[in-house]
Amino acid sequence: MKARDFAANDPFDVQNQPPPLEDYNLWEFDRPARDALALYCDDNSGAQADTETLSYGARLGRAEVLRLGELANRYEPELRTYDRFGHRIDEVEFHESWHRLMSLSIEAGIHSTPWTSADSGAHVRRAAMSHLKHQVEQGTSCPVTMTFAVVPSLRIQPEIASVWEPRAMSRQYDPRLIPAHQKTGVLFGMAMTERQGGSDVRANTTRARAIGTRGPGNEYLLRGHKWFCSAPMCDAFLVLAQSEGGLSCFLVPRFTPDDERNPFQIQRLKSKLGNRSNASSEIVFDDTWAQMVGEEGRGVATIIEMVRHTRLDCTLGAASLIRRCVAEACHHTAYRYAFGRRLIEQPLMKNVLADLCLESEAATAAGFRLAAAFDAAQHSEDAARFARIATAIAKYQVTKKETDVAREAMECHGGNGYVEEAPIARLFRESPLNSIWEGSGNVQCLDVLRAAQRDPETLSLFVAELDEARGGDARYDGWLDALKDRLSDPSDLELRARRVVEELATGLQASLLVRHAPAAVSDAFVASRLVGERGRAYGTLGRDVDFDAIIERSLPQVG
Ligand SMILES: Cc1cc2nc3c(=O)[nH]c(=O)nc-3n(C[C@H](O)[C@H](O)[C@H](O)COP(=O)(O)OP(=O)(O)OC[C@H]3O[C@@H](n4cnc5c(N)ncnc54)[C@H](O)[C@@H]3O)c2cc1C
Fold first, then answer.
1. Tens of pLDDT along 252-289?
2. Lesser CB count within 10 Å: N end or C end of the chain?
3. CATH assignment of 186-299?
4. Domain boundaries in the chain?
5. Taking the model in full, what pTM does it have?
6. β-strand 265-269 against 219-230: which pairing, if any?
7. Helix, strand, or coil (residue 191)
8. Which ligand 1 atom lies nearest to the CA of residue 199?
9. Which residue's CA lies nearest to atom 44 of ligand 1?
10. 3-state secondary structure 111-124
């Protein structure tokens, strides 16, 4: 069909509107993600994982499942403070679509696989499944991530982990607010942030008073207020509070050991820009029963294990949202005609799309590399050090790109992109969140500096990863030499931290693409991101780029 063929004078004939991107396999046409999965799995487990994700991708790509994402965000959760008889209940009611999306996540083991599987690549396999699920809906990813991430912190207190971990690892989603031991599966949340400070949790004022003997595993009562507590319908939370010995970590269940409702007042739900399916609340602890997890006064060191894993998911989630935006943009422009040709065929639009595809390639490569580092960290101290610094570097970079890509992908849709019926508007509203929570951009940069200062080997290991790509592209080698010179300058590091982290992150992405991506992708990435042949906006790649080859790898196909 050509623009000149459009029938005239029939106001009821809908022409030149692309079909919705649905009833397609989310995994099948995502070449960057499939390549990344294959890279970190051996032939046997890679083929098995690919089959698993293909099947999940087909399921999630069905129109009715994609619609759940829209519904869960349109019909927002509602707080029920009291029941009809006046009893305080502090419950949140969700739309049916939320529960279906939660089931789809929990049944796939996105909250559990690395802790329940003997597979040495379980983090990577989970990353692939989460890459798919997060494209459908992001709010439900919050409690799923927190339930996944809590395990390493819980294990610091083995007698508590032995009770709670099996419940949390169940593949049955059970939304009932009843005592945890009566449930077929439980969910975890976290509450650190207070009004006076989120980044600086040492300013927390919530108090913890020992009921009897003080110390790890013992019982306490908490009193205080938390300014952000997402997914308050979870069954238990890790919470920071000040005890006699300093800031400590506590497990707070919704029910006491006597099966009574634990005082856990939900004051209100936040009205948010995006992430609307998810309830984010302000809560009050009023002599709330808790158990100490980890050493007294070592609350940050205890909960940081959980935070490290939620930060991994911020990166994976951002790469996933970028993928969905790019898929939507490629699809729309593949069907939409303007000035007699499909948009995707027009040189300037090709430039925009290829640039967005490069961002998606780089985000995906970084996310899967990070997941592989979490796998390796389970048996290698060096891998753990690499993961420590790479988590902050990747989170900073990939989450910052999320909004840029969502905005540009929206523009590819023209006016349709700005209308709420199109998924792209929701994705755009969601897109700033991953860079704000779990440590905002500056906090990640300061974390990189702290890691490098406390243990310089972490930075050396990171730079060694960049060195791995030497010999693949002379421009990259030259850039890396210059980067090393810049890194040797210790002056004003805090002031320059964003620039330093940005360079390290771009270097990691380039290193991965030079080693593992097709030449069309790595050439264009190095030329545009490292050696400066690019303007500020997307769509400013140089003329030597193989635009079609890059777009082809990310173009979804319906039917
Ligand atoms: C939708 C949503 C859900 C959330 N859910 C939860 C939850 O479930 N549990 C929970 O505990 N928290 C939750 N949070 C809170 C979130 O983690 C915090 O908002 C975040 O950590 C930042 O803390 P803050 O809001 O107090 O900002 P601040 O700490 O005041 O920071 C403001 C800005 O200052 C920057 N900054 C801080 N320190 C420095 C420094 N030294 N140098 C330079 N810049 C600095 C930060 O990077 C940030 O950009 C949620 C937030 C949102 C938006």
1. 999 999 999 999 999 999 999 999 999 999 999 999 99
2. C
3. 2.40.110.20
4. 186-299, 442-546
5. 0.98
6. unpaired
7. strand
8. 29
9. 442
10. CCHHHHCCCCCHHH
